[in-house]
Amino acid sequence: MASFSISIAGDSAINLEFARTISPETSRLVRAAAQTLSEDRILGVTELVPTFCSLMVCYDPGLIGYDDLCARVTGKLRTITGSADSLHRIVTIPVCYGGEYGPDLQTVADHAGLSPREVIELHSGRDYLIDMLGFLPGFAYLGGLDERLHTPRLASPRTVIPAGSVGIGGAQTGIYPLASPGGWQLIGRTPVLPYDPARAQPILYAAGDYIRFSPISEKRYQAIQAQVDNGTYHYEITMEEN
Fold first, then answer.
1. Are residues 160 and 48 both part of a single domain?
2. Residue in 9, 19, 18 with CA at minimum distance from that of residue 66
3. Which of 29, 62, 68, 167 has the fewest CB atoms in 10 Å of its CB?
4. Residue 63 structural domain
5. Domain boundary among 27, 46, 76
6. Structure pTM?
7. What is the pLDDT of residues 139-182, one digit of tens each?
8. Structural domain includes residue 207
9. Which residues, other chains included, contact 91 with Cβ-Cβ below 8 Å and sequence gap of 6+?
């Protein structure tokens, strides 16, 4: 049985905490719990919100009580495991690094004692597990950033960050899907749309998917942006074995 604690989260939610430390194993447990409860369709459960180490279960107290919900959840999650899936989904994100697209690339390089080229190679040289979505629609919190690239957030956040900006904040990297304020170090930008409310599936990826950053030139950036704007761009999404 998966080990987790249950705590009250207001008058219409409970929080299931599986660990206190972020890890791929914990992320898989949280996703497995969310999938199990989603498939079970417990009467009164209105929403499931997975995070790094916990799952919030929102419910209607008029349809199910706290004690009954806790009993149902505990019973349903008795046999879940955090074992890795045989296949995982990879979403490739083209990124133009540096220049006006990544104004903090040199700052990250200086902090790491590396050249900008080495930062790009390290950042794009591995796949990143999406631990959770939050902050903005389609903002993916990614695990697995090379320790050499860990860089403190800006002392004074920017009031506006362009949509598609790729940044580093502490031990994490991520993509700003919408223009917004933010304090992460910006190292590049993608011309694709992680979030598009006009798409049948508005958010391009989900927790449990992987993101692969692919360096591109400014010329290629502009070409892809034109394809995105006219609806002819084909997103690169593949299934690969673990």
1. no
2. 9
3. 62
4. 5-76
5. 76
6. 0.86
7. 999 989 999 999 999 999 999 999 999 999 999 999 999 999 99
8. yes
9. 204, 205, 209, 210, 211, 212, 235, 236, 237
